[in-house]
Amino acid sequence: MILDNRGLEPPQPMMRTLAALETLGENEVLTIINNRRPMFLYEQLEELGYQQRTGPQEDGSFKIEIFR
């Protein structure tokens, strides 16, 4: 599943991401694309037992892969 959160104002990107995680199946990966690094999301992911990989994109946005 891929969520493009670019252009959304906080807290919409985090709310959309957390809602999508509720539908994520075992061994699935949620990929989100944000305008900036989602610093507050990382703490939430850790509390929920998720791991993540974050990398910058050529356009200045960030791609975050979320998984268990």
Order of helices and strands: EHEHEE
Helix count, per DSSP?
2
On the 0 to 100 scale, the average pLDDT is 96
The strand line-up of the biggest sheet is: 1-2-4-3
Q: Give unreliable regions as ranges.
A: none
Q: What gyration radius follows from the Cα positions, in whole Å?
A: 11 Å
Percent of residues in β-strands: 25-35%
How many angstroms separate the termini? 14 Å
Question: Describe the biggest sheet?
Answer: 4 strands, mixed
Number of strands: 4
Structural class: alpha+beta
Shape: globular
How much helix, percentage-wise, in residues? 25-40%
InterPro entries: DUF2249, TusA-like_sf
Protein name: DUF2249 domain-containing protein
Domain DUF2249: 3-67
Please render the helix and strand layout as text:
Elements: E1 2-4, H1 12-21, E2 30-34, H2 39-48, E3 51-56, E4 62-67
Parallel strand pairs: 1-2
Antiparallel strand pairs: 2-4, 3-4
Question: What features would you highlight for this structure?
Answer:
single chain; 68 residues; alpha+beta; 4-stranded mixed beta sheet; 4 strands; globular; DUF2249; DUF2249 domain-containing protein; TusA-like_sf
Would you give an account of this structure?
With 68 residues, the protein is α+β, with helices and mostly antiparallel strands. The chain is built from 2 helices and 4 strands, in the order βαβαββ. It has helices spanning 12-21, 39-48; strands spanning 2-4, 30-34, 51-56, 62-67. A 4-stranded mixed sheet has the order 1-2-4-3, with helices on one face. The longest helix has 10 residues, at 12-21. The protein starts with a strand and ends with a strand. The mean pLDDT is 96. InterPro entries: DUF2249, TusA-like_sf. This is DUF2249 domain-containing protein. Pfam families: DUF2249. Residues 3-67 form the DUF2249 domain.
